[in-house]
Amino acid sequence: MTGRLSGKIALITGVGGGMGVAAASMFAAEGARVVGCDLDAAGAARTEALVREAGGEITCFGGVDLGDAEAARAWVDAAVATYDGIDVLYNNASTQRFGALDELSIEDWDFTMRNELDLVYYTVRAAWPHLKRYGGGSIVNVGSIAAIRGVEFMPQNAHSTAKGGVIALTLQLVVEGGPHGIRANVISPGMTETPNTAPLLADPPERMQKVVLDRIPLGRHGQPEDVVNAAIFLASDESSWISGTNLVVDGGGSVLG
Fold first, then answer.
1. Fewer Cβ close by (within 10 Å): the C or N end of the chain?
2. What's the chain's average pLDDT?
3. pLDDT tens column, 166-184
4. pLDDT (tens digit, 9 = 90+) per residue, 10-68?
5. Do residues 43 and 51 make contact, with C-beta atoms less than 8 angstroms apart?
6. Residue 197 in contact with residue 232, Cβ under 8 Å?
7. Residue 138: count of CB within 10 angstroms of its CB
8. R_g over Cα of the chain
9. What CATH number does domain 9-250 carry, 3.40.50.300, 3.40.50.720, 2.40.150.20, 3.40.50.360?
């Protein structure tokens, strides 16, 4: 690692598993002081121990429900106070439910909006006055290629809509944040291996293999590190004149339609 984030304070959501573990580990390895959170208290504690064992500086909060506006505000306030500042807000956390349009329950739709879109808004809203007070910073939101194309192998209308909302929200953050030195960008991953997708990728259904995996020009599905490397760039000063981009990280798969 090269210290690309040395001196920066990074708030990262959803560090208890999957991409969040990689995010916390890699940001800390690049010199950031990380404040993480997760609804899963045990997962957050494991990540904290892992990063500290590797020599990184991190504090994690467990049992944080970012889909509750007051809980999101309380975590952000505590996170900013931990190292007395904020330079990066990395909105990684999300949970969704899938179902065909005429089968997905209203409860599952509402759950997905709450846990993929609302939590981003609540967290950004809580961080906004801190970012303004400390002279700006970088917001990195995680979207999905599901927001820019339909998929044939999974009914994900709620997921697609929520992630489309994340992209639209980010564009407005660019306009409102620019005068305060606040940048905002989106990373939209394609099929990436996480604990949730690993079983599916180990033995993919024939249709998924045909319409997704066989059509990735670079010949492989993604790894968490592929996504986090993009986030490190957007969090670093290397991207100081980049705001409003949707950085697609999918091995080229989405260009094939």
1. C
2. 94
3. 999 999 999 999 999 999 9
4. 999 999 999 999 999 999 999 999 999 999 999 999 999 999 999 999 999 999 999 99
5. no
6. no
7. 27
8. 17
9. 3.40.50.720
Token pair of 112 as six digits? 């997905």
For tokens 């179902």, what's the residue? 99
237, two tokens: 């000063």
Structural tokens at position 231 = 């986030």
